[in-house]
Amino acid sequence: MEWIERLNDAIGYIEEHLTDEIDYEQLGRIACCSSYHFQRMFSYMAGVPLSEYIRRRKMSLAAVDLQGKDMKIIDVASKYGYQSPTAFNRAFHSVHGIAPSAVKDEGVSVKSFPPVTFKITVKGVEEMNYRIETKEAFRIVGVSVPLNKDIEKNFEVIPSKWQEISMNGTLQRLTGMMDTPPMGVLGISTCNDTEPWRYYIAVSSSQEKGDLEEYIVPAATWAVFPGTGTNQSIQDLERRIVTEWLPTSGYEYGDAPDVEVYLNPDPQNAQYEVWIPVVKKQ
To answer: For 66-91, b where at least 16 C-beta lie within 10 A, e where not — what string?
Structure first.
């Protein structure tokens, strides 16, 4: 239950800072994980990206301010961190479907999004196969792209990079350099709050990197989940890991990269493993 309580404490922090700058790294510290992992957990458990949730909460309160108080739109916009009235109008319309100026008219309908509360629920009896493995540090060689701090924006960047290296021959070159475990094409997200966030498409290799990049994956303990299917299947597995396995597993997120191991990288019938860094709860 401590894990769920920390998530709810993070929601409390958001509520206290809706009119301030919300520090994603502080949210991670409250939840005892990186800001990347917090966003990921939140999105899977709440069913909405963290950035969108915060926008909905701000616009819910903004509507109340415009309805019940003699406040100017520009003042309400500033209160919730929008320096541009145009940006505020766009955000308000995306949530309520009307312009802020229309709210003052009697009888106009707006939406209310209350704060979320997390709790453990039983979701079924479908089994999840996994194993716990502790591995020494290993070297990877490949290519990478920077990850956005708003992780939802990365769902376009990462597939685009995979397509690029498949078309230009880099992926075939990497598979020829694979010579140390783990044996597979790797998708690795370096996502702690002490180094730049990047996503590597790489292999574990002892060979000279040439014009490629290299990264040392630190020694860590991972929970390893096998899977098959498409890219959507991977996302479904990751969602189940976060919402079903992690809350009651006795583990929590560790300070190491997320790893995807593509044993068969066929995008339509992939065989893969999802590695989640974990530490035993104290």
So the answer is: beeeeeebeebbebbbbeeeeebbeb
Which residues make Cβ contacts (< 8 Å) with residue 149, sequence separation at least 6? 24, 35, 197
d(CA 178, CA 213): 14
Residue 116 amino acid letter: V
11 is written with which tokens?
């929601």
pLDDT of amino acid 71: 86
Instruction: Tell which residue, 212, 221, 34, 260, has the closest CA to residue 137.
Output: 221
Integer angstrom CA distances of residue 199 from 161, 186, 257? 10, 10, 10
Q: Which of 42, 38, 15 is nearest to 27 (CA)?
A: 38
CA distance 215 to 196: 12
- Calpha distance 62→53 (Å, rounded): 14
Pairing of strands 258-264, 185-190: antiparallel
Closest by CA to 61, choosing from 94, 10, 11, 110, is 110
Strand blocks (E) in 115-219:
131-135, 138-146, 185-190, 198-204, 213-217
235 Cβ neighbours under 8 A, 6+ residues apart: none
| Residue found by looking up tokens 């709440």 in the block | 46
> How far is residue 251's CA from residue 131's CA, in Å, rounded to a whole number?
13
Give the predicted TM-score (pTM) of the model: 0.83
Kindly report, residue by residue over 99-143, the tens digit of the pLDDT: 999 987 777 889 999 999 988 765 656 788 999 999 999 999 999
Alpha carbons 29 and 192: distance in angstroms, whole number: 11
SS (H, E, C) 182-210: CCCEEEEEECCCCCCCEEEEEEECCCCCC
Spatial separation of the C-alpha atoms in residues 83 and 240, rounded to whole Å: 39
